[in-house]
Amino acid sequence: MKGSNDYKKAEEWLWSEVMGQKLTLSVGAIAMMASSYANQAVPRLMGRLVDPKTDTKHQSNSLFSNILAVGLLGGLASFTRTVMLNSAKEFIAANLRRETFASLMIHRKLDWFQALQSCNGNSDETTTSEKSNEDKELQQNIDSMVNEKELTPAGVAVFLRDDVETASHTVTITLANMLRSTSSCVFGTYHMLSLNPELVCLAILVAPVVGSIGFLSRKYLKRVQSSQQEAALSAAAFVEDKLNHIMMVRLSNREQDEVVNYGQIQDENVQFGIKSALADGLSMGAMFCLSTSALCGVLFAGGKAVETKRMTHGDLLSFSTYSFMLALGSAGLARAVGEYMRGMRCARRLYSVAYPLVENEEVEMTARCQSIDPQLVKSISMEEVSFTFQSHDRLLLQDVSMVLQRGMVVAMTGQNGSGKSVLAMVLAGLYSPRNGRIVVEIVSPSEDEPVTTRYDFVNDIDRSHQASLVQVVPQQPVLFNTSIIENVRYSCPDAPSNKVSEALKAANCDTFVSMLDGGAEFNVGRNGSKLSGGQRQRLGLARALVADAPFLVLDEPASALDSEGATAVNDVVKACREQNRGLLIISHRINTLELADKVIVLKEGRIVQHGMLSDLKNEKEGELVALMPELVGR
Ligand SMILES: Nc1ncnc2c1ncn2[C@@H]1O[C@H](COP(=O)(O)OP(=O)(O)OP(=O)(O)O)[C@@H](O)[C@H]1O
């Protein structure tokens, strides 16, 4: 029963956070009970105040002082409970957010994020069909909450905000409310029984009718509200998608169409809203009518009891107040149970986003621990590596073998979609090969002769050390919404300023950076929106250089560069040779291929040609000549 185990784990996760706040929560719970006790005491005292037998001055004064004392105690207890429970809630929420974010940052595989980016999660129907009915139900419950098809990075941020809020509220305030409502019900019933058991029997006869009507109307309301929530989510996803791609919308002249589409979504939302309002109104109206009639009935019967001297006026007042409290308590208990279920669903949803629901290869393995001195590394190689994403059936890399030696420049080319960028990411250790392995060879000095050791890059080496060995400059380098200097330092936070300046210079960034307002302190905007594509690419290059890794992979480094920027690539190639770094350049440009010692040609995930450019261009039937016919005769 994997599903229920996952459920259990999510709850255990939440409860472990609760246990971290047990002292604060216990004080809050005690204060909650004290305030509830004070609440329960008031109606009796009020009843006594009303009755003629308390009409002597001395008794009235003592009653007043008792009520005052109870009021003060209740006030103090309410204050303590509010402070304690709310602070515990804040601590629990902060911890849940921290843990979820850490888990996303460290454990979730890149595949999952890629699916998020493209809003293209898969529901894995075959797996679902193999599950037991119970598992299916559990899974569907979660799927309905975490519809990965709709899940986007912004959606994850919303989970972090809203679900954490609900889950932490549940295990603090809701649980305390449950406690208070239960005590209201128990004490209320006890007091009512001691005042007039016959009246209680009458109330008990009415209660199931009121309760069932309330329950059914709430259930219907919940169903309508959940459709309303789904509609609201789709509307939010629509807005996010269109606003993120506003440029494309305008280029295609589809603004008016999108406004109309959004209007239709809103019309649907209004329909759901009206349905929900009607259901809510019906439920509230019915509850009001029923509870008022029930109260009137009890008061009528109570009036008769007063007439026949079986009860005093004060007793009737106390009884009515307790019955009111009992009604409030039962409604509060029902609400708290609903909130508790919702809170647990949020915890499970959060857990399923942070941690995979099924314990398989979706989790990043953290058992790797080898650290390697980058200075000793001699080469990195792929040995019969095959790879594909979890969502793919077709292999994107097939039996790829290649070596990147230090001081060597290898160029890789191939038609669009042949797998070059994927290969770069696999080589950098961001995606794990399905088959084959990536091997790092180090040569350690020794008294006799140097010792060569081979490490499995993916399974033996820690992620932080992988990054210190291989740096990749992606086709479209990502820039964070911060200064240039912070962006460049991102790959090596401890890099001193002079090293950053050197990297900026080596990547030919110095001229454009000096012209920006604030120079290297210039804030590049979201996704580097305040810079041109070429400037972003050059900063990406500078960032990779700062890390001082022995191997560098440049994915289409010159695609957005002007001639001056392209010179930067020549300079980087030269610098890599001088600094004895291994360089893999992915490119469609002949000029770039000419800089390399060796050229690799990839086709449909396989290496179909490799060797020196001078040899490859003589293979007239080869893939390279087919790709770049202008090579012949150069
Ligand atoms: N995150 C991803 N999820 C699923 N499939 C992907 C993902 N990234 C790439 N692919 C698929 O992998 C294949 C290889 O893509 P890749 O980006 O490596 O091609 P490329 O050779 O670098 O192409 P180009 O020359 O256009 O940059 C493509 O068919 C693409 O659809």
From TrEMBL:
- List residues of the ABC transmembrane type-1 domain: 27-342
**What keywords are annotated for this sequence in UniProt?**
ATP-binding, Membrane, Nucleotide-binding, Transmembrane, Transmembrane helix
- Give the transmembrane ranges: 63-80, 281-301, 321-338
Spell out the Pfam families in the cross-references: ABC_membrane (PF00664), ABC_tran (PF00005)
Give the molecular function GO annotations.
ABC-type oligopeptide transporter activity; ATP binding; ATP hydrolysis activity
Gene3D superfamilies (UniProt xref): ABC transporter type 1, transmembrane domain (1.20.1560.10), P-loop containing nucleotide triphosphate hydrolases (3.40.50.300)
Name under which the protein is recorded: ATP-dependent transporter ycf16
- Per the UniProt record, the source organism is Cylindrotheca closterium
